[in-house]
Fold each of these.
Amino acid sequence: MAHASAQLEDLIGDYINGQTSEASTNHSFSNVSSLADVYSNWSSGYVYIALATDSSLGARFTTFTEPSGNNYSRVNSSTNGGSSSIEITPTSGTDGSWENEYDISFPQATGSWGTITYAIIYYDDGTDTFPLIACPLASSTAVGNNTTLTFSAGDLKYTVA
């Protein structure tokens, strides 16, 4: 099951409670005061997919262990393999489930990235930076030299329950 970050839970709580202004929220983001702000910036290059090597993320995760070096980089929402953006779309109009609409490919590794356990949907506009959703991989994946990690459309799923 995918995990929502503390920040996403705060934004969802604000949305459910009808809070839409920065003054009414209980978080400290400067450029993001609502879910609408995140959604409106989804295709502007502020949403990334990161990888995590943590074997377990606690509830309301705020940090995670990310690979470094060996050609690792987050995949930007506006520059993914020819697609105009990484889209997370509803799987049904009303069930609260979301999944990636396009394949998501990371750069080819030039050395070990370790064992990947989660894909992290991450928001970073240069001022506000926070993880949104942690999607566990169906099975841990060791990424070594000359490996290209790709998530096919529908591999990353999140359900608001």
Amino acid sequence: MYVFRYLPLYAERPLDALALTPHALSLSGGLLLGAVASLWRWRRDRVSIGAALDCSTRGLATVFLAIALSHLASGEAFGSPSEVPWAVEQWGAMRHPTPVYEALAAAGVLAMVFRRDDQQPGTTFTLWVVLASTSRLLIEAFRGDSLTLAGGLRQAQLAAVGVSVAALWAHGWLTRGRSIPEAVTMAHESSTTAR
């Protein structure tokens, strides 16, 4: 993903694309590739999508905590200027310690989903999505480096609202005893039956 994003630079020196440079790694690209590989594996092994998502929840929650800690270590995702007693000095101003907020929220969400073993497949995952996106919605209000849209709403907050609403709907659907549509498994079974 990083190479694709900066293709003109790599076109001049294509072998640089094989270098394992930490700043050239793409979190979004890794998550996308991981999702595609997981879907392929689940389909191949006929694993319930809801159960597989629940199994991946603890790992995803841990990754979000690691990202928060990396923001704390690097100074990224810094907060907006503030005079609260716990403000920290960063980039020449006293600011909200948003990486600390992010780490505390991620640790709390991880603790909430770590020991869950819901009867209905998919509910642990949808609960994690609701909690993670809601915490993002709240923390973004204190960020000083994110894109702000008209009316003061941040782009990440708008996305978090959409994700939260969809995840709440899915969680309600699952807790009423319905299952996640097993489209991948059903498609595989129908193609096997047709043969």
Amino acid sequence: MKGRLIFEDGTAFEAEAFGSHGDRAGVAVAFAGGAGFQEAATTPSYLGRILVFERPTVGACGADEAWNESDRVCAEGVVCRELSKSVSDGGGPMAFGRFCESRQLLGLEGAPTREIAAHIRSRGEQWALLTTEESSLKSHLARLALLKTQTSANPDKYRVSGEALLASWRPAGGGATAVVLDIGAGASFYRLLKRHNIFWRAFGPRMSAEEILSIRPDAALVSNGAYPADSLPGTVATIKSLLGRVPVAGIGLGAALVASALGASPSEMKSGHHGVNIPVANVATGALRITEQNHSVALRAEDLRRRGGETLYVNTIDGSVEGFVHRRKMAAGAFFEPDGLETIQELTGGLPL
């Protein structure tokens, strides 16, 4: 079955469809890295995205339901050059293509992914239609415009309901308490908190500052997510009311919201950072780390500095801010996923998180 990826600028690519059929629409992003494909497809912060995998071969490690970041497939579709039909000795019980079929995730195989990734980087991230329907380019673009309006006009369509928003866990004894403003956190984020004996209460982005403070948390954490960066003014207002009253740390989109609450002005990137091999450097020590990221938001160091903040991490490829702290207001943010509690503690420069 043939399928096509059609960008809203009219550029189209054809390949073999797998997994499902029909129409899917979302923002096409280039995903860098040699692993984490299933995790990315099920991560809530990839809601409304079409993932273009830059790795030549996808799915060699297979798929396992235990690796899912949520209880649903969140990506609108996936695009790859070659889909592995087998799994390695340490792989899961099914091939990645079979996983896509079982979850009705529409994909394209045999696509020129390097060319597509170059198109995204040169023209910027834009909406695209993934389709198996036979029609004219004009009809496809009209369908894309309709789907885009239906989705982007209602940010609530990005929200993940169920386990993540209702998540809570209390340790057997001791431990800190954190309130999570869950804009699209994956399961690994909560596993990190549990591993470090942190009791959490997770709520949606409309949680008020007074409700948060009534829980008397040791910290407030703002997760990554798939919302448009400018669609959550209420969450920014909540964070602003928390500043100086409780330590606040944001991850990914959450970091952009914390920066906005500090008075900075994050902007949309032409082509964001998506993948599991993004290099960042500690500006104080020069130490490098390879990080997992999913965001399309940039923050200028000068803008941050004027608000009393300081840059802690920078991207070694494009020089963008990857981590920051505002010590007086007890606020911090990272545009990369923490790989341990020590990352958050290092990021916050000693804030009591």
Amino acid sequence: MSNYLKKAKELQCFSGFDVKDYSLSNNNISDELGTLPAITLEKVLELASIYPDYKYEKLTDALQKNFNIENIIYGSGSEDLIVRINLILKQIGPICILYPNFYRIMETAGPHIKIFAEYNKQSQFIDIETVKKHLDGSNKIRSLWITNPNPMIGKVFYKNDLIKMIKDHYNILFIIDESAIDFIKNSESFSLLDLSQQVENLIVLRSFSKLFGLAGLRIGFATGKSRFLRDVNKIGPTFPLSTIAEYFAINILAKKELVSQICEKIEKNKNIIRRLLEKNPNIYFSESITNCLFFGSNQLDIFEEFLKLGIISLKLNETEGIKEKNFVRITIHSSEKSFNNLFISLSKFIN
């Protein structure tokens, strides 16, 4: 899978007209929610003048209290953790990846074993039976990457199904990327953060890039009881978390009530956009539990049609593991400005 971030930038630069990117899965924060803590220029300069605290004691304390977890390691975004984890996994044995998935996981894994997720367009959930059959039928698999919820299909696993599979296959290291899980209402009903503190064969990744729209600050962390985490931490982050990034992360963790506000706003905007698109009988949808809409058409090249209107969607029908025709993903933001731009453009498409 290619770098769709790079492709979006190329489209913005060379399309010849104003385009807006709705292809990436991270949220665009709305100003009225006041999600980001207020910060003065003086405070920015003060933080910028301080070297990072390589132990991240204040951030670690905030995460431990917020999620009731121990053994936390950090990365310059979850992407940095993915790179470092795969460096070590390749030394252990063949890496297994559940497709479709985030391109950086595949890109940094080298030659790997592929398992393809089975799902029904009418359901928000992924079938776990196919995954278990592969694990039961192979003695080569030593590790398995799962992104939950899956950003390329918008679906999630039932928590109890994942728990049973992980406990039954204690000889396999499961790495669960939960970067997008905050978009789900009652996310604790799906997250495996609690299980990661109990078993040795599970690592969970989280990010501040998605719901909070802080992709540029590069804040990611991983947790688990596994001794494997210590080996990853020995490599160390490619770049340390800046004091400014740590400041924002700590302050955001203190604003728990805003998470549900953001999710509710996204869900409202998502329903409005879906109802608008449903007016076109040539469009079919695949159910999504995330902040993204997934849809396709047997008649229209939706990606090209949207591009004419200045909308960059994520073209998915060329993605390995997706069978739908002319299939795209658009991200719905909590930002009123972003939502209004999308609604106006799509209204032209429908008309």
